[in-house]
Amino acid sequence: MMPSPVPERSDGAPVARRGRKPEPIAAGVGLAHRAWLESVRARLKARGLTLDELVTLTGFSKTRISELLRGNGYYPGWEITFSIIKALEIPAWPMRRLWTAAAQEANKQPAWIQRSIDRVVPIEREHQPTAHQGFVQLMAAPYTAYARAFLLTDQRAQWVVAETFDILWLCWDEAATSENAPRFGWRLLRSRVLERAHRHPEGHVDLRAAALSAQTQQESTDLAERLSSIDELVPLFDAIGRLPRDQQDITVLRYLCGIDAETVPDVVGLTPAATRAIDGHARAALADIYHRRQTRE
């Protein structure tokens, strides 16, 4: 059989054959693990490197690299992870935080995590892009308030926000050159939060527990008054969970988190006019949902 001809560019030079794309990420990979794995795979695709080229650059076998890129088998140690991100020129400082968080999610013991980190020459803290640093300072408070509304605890909210900012650091060039960097960041945060939010059996986000959390902030010590307040809040929060995404975002930020109306457009990356229109649609939708519910009851 005659060998297939080598493809050529328009100038007559041969085009290097590309290897196969990595197989899809394995089912069951944890959310924190998937967060950094997707970033690595995106950079691999952008760089156009094959697995064979990664083998050459890292010194690890194709099997081990393939397993890491799929999230298959045991959670990977920092040594092989670092070798790959170094080859792909991914910032190591935020990546190590993401790797550590995912190791904790995978129930790796602190001693295992530290031993794995110690096998690699200590990394120098990289210079955080100035624009990214400013973005973090501006968005940390509203992002955390939004995450807390869905995840209920400060610890979980801060974890997800930190994850979001680290992922954003990894793709900051893409965010900074996009048409709307605040919108880019907001969509990233929203995706990280909603992946972890509790779901109603009907499929939408379940905010009813947030109603109980909000009610506990009230100063009233009268049990009957507090129970009555819960009865009123739970249907309202359930209705908020059924709103379209943008309407839900603005409702949560304005009325659950107490973010000023003038600040919300900058947080979600929308114009003030668009934000006002969405807010109006949300309030009308909530009134309709609430009215229909009360009519049924």
Unreliable segments of 5+ consecutive residues = 1-17
What fraction of residues sit in β-strands?
A: under 5%
Number of strands: 0
Shape field? elongated
Number of helices, counting only DSSP H or I runs of 4 residues or more: 15
Mean pLDDT: 87
What structural category characterises the helix and strand content? mainly alpha
Largest sheet: none
End-to-end Cα distance:
77 Å
Radius of gyration from the CA trace? Answer: 24 Å
Give an overview of the whole structure.
The protein has 297 residues and is an all-alpha fold. Helix content is 66%, strand content 0%. Helix 5 (92-105) packs across helix 8 (154-170), helix 11 (208-215) packs antiparallel against helix 12 (223-240) and helix 13 (245-256) crosses helix 15 (272-296). The longest helix has 25 residues, at 272-296. It is elongated, with a radius of gyration of 24 Å.
Summarize the structure.
With 297 residues, the protein is mainly α. It has 15 helices and no strands.
Write the layout of secondary structure elements.
Blueprint: H1 31-47, H2 51-58, H3 62-70, H4 78-87, H5 92-105, H6 110-118, H7 130-151, H8 154-170, H9 172-176, H10 181-196, H11 208-215, H12 223-240, H13 245-256, H14 264-268, H15 272-296
Helix pairs in contact: 1-5, 4-5, 5-8, 7-8, 7-10, 7-13, 8-10, 11-12, 12-15, 13-15
